[in-house]
Specification:
- The structure is a single chain.
- This protein is α/β, with parallel strands linked by helices.
- The chain is built from six helices and five strands; from the N terminus they run αββααβαβαβα.
- The strands form two sheets. It has a three-stranded parallel beta sheet with strand order 3-4-5, with helices on one face.
Length: about 160
């Protein structure tokens, strides 16, 4: 495969965004490998590439390989004990690797009072400041449902590698 054929796998969302979304009957590991191979071919044609590794997919993260391949890791956490513990584990692993910058995003996706931890408690536990807070937006679900139809027309297959909201 060359750069031109790799470009054929991209779905144009708008003039500034193309998405690589692979689907298939292969294992998640194989799809991730295919995605990485295509991204490696396209890297000279992009200002940046965002890899999205969802925690909801049954896939064992190779954090050392991810950190080695990327300059910046964005760790999105929610204010729950399990999420913060997982974040602490990832932060400890990344600290032993090459100089890779980590940004912490706090995703508050429920109304005030719905979570057991506060931002200051999380920062104390992680011994790191939160870089970006994604506040709760009670109208977001409606907005996403309204936009879903227009986005679905552009993306004709499930998105594996990116979430843009």
């Amino acid at each position: 495969m060359d750069e031109n054929s790799a470009n054929d796998y991209l779905i144009k969302i708008n003039n500034n965004l193309k998405v690589l979304a692979l689907e298939g009957n292969q294992s998640i590991e194989k799809l991730v490998l295919y995605t990485n191979n295509i991204a490696d071919l396209l890297i000279r044609h992009a200002n940046f590439i965002v890899d999205d590794y969802s925690s909801s997919i049954d896939y064992e993260f190779q954090l050392d390989a991810i950190a080695d391949k990327n300059d910046i890791l964005v760790l999105v956490i929610e204010p729950t004990i399990s999420s913060v513990r997982t974040a602490q584990t990832y932060l400890q692993q990344v600290s032993t690797l090459r100089n890779c910058r980590v940004l912490l995003f706090l995703n508050i996706h429920r109304p005030a009072g719905a979570f057991s931890l506060t931002q200051p408690e999380i920062e104390t536990y992680l011994e790191n400041a939160i870089d970006v807070v994604l506040p709760y937006n009670k109208t977001l679900a409606t907005q996403l449902l309204e936009e879903k139809g227009s986005i679905k027309k552009k993306i004709q297959r499930p998105v594996l590698s990116a979430n843009w909201h």
